[in-house]
Amino acid sequence: MTNARSRTICWTPIWNKAREGVGLEHLLLTEHAADSVVLAFDEQHDPFRLTYRLTWDESWRLRDANMVVTTDRFTRSMTLKTDGRGHWRDGDGRAITELDGCIDIDIWPTPFTNSFPIRREPMAVGERRQFHVAWVYAPELTVHPQPQAYTRLADRLYLFENLDGSGFRAELPTDEDGIVLDYPELFRRVKET
Fold first, then answer.
1. Which residues contact 170 (CB under 8 A, 6 or more apart)?
2. How would you label 46-76 residue by residue, b for 16+ Cβ within 10 Å and e otherwise?
3. What are phi and psi of 114, to 5 degrees?
4. Domain ranges (residues) in the chain
5. Which end of the chain has fewer CB within 10 Å, C or N?
6. Alpha helices, DSSP H only, in 18-165?
7. Are 153 and 125 in contact (CB under 8 A)?
8. pTM for the complete prediction?
């Protein structure tokens, strides 16, 4: 990272055209940890708050993920721990064999977690790599394995492909630290310090 001490990054969600720009992610990023609060609306247009704390090692291999979702109907939490080599456990230490082989995490709704494969696996321009990630969906806080691919199109531009059969693709510009700037049709960065 440019500043090894800390950065503050904010994105606004733009996926819900009826509520475009309503909501915010406020991320505090340090060398090996991220603390974030996401305020957003789900598909039924109900507001929710997602807080997450992630820690990783010097190679951007995730170690811990702690998430809490709060709505007017419920509060849910999830803790995931990984050895960084594709083995996962829940907060009680039970193995989650369904996630075997997943190295990275991808949390909806945040663009930050797209930076894990980009940072962990530097690629040459034109190179494409496939990844298996633990995909967490909020506000339900479900998790399952998901295949994805990244292709480095330019120095700071990556093509993201969801390989789950949906055909979803997006070009992701990044900053000098490999952190996503804007996610077309989904998120726009609005603040950084």
1. 159, 160, 183, 184, 185, 186
2. eebbbebebebeeebbbeebbbbbeeeeeeb
3. -65, -20
4. 7-192
5. C
6. 115-120
7. yes
8. 0.92
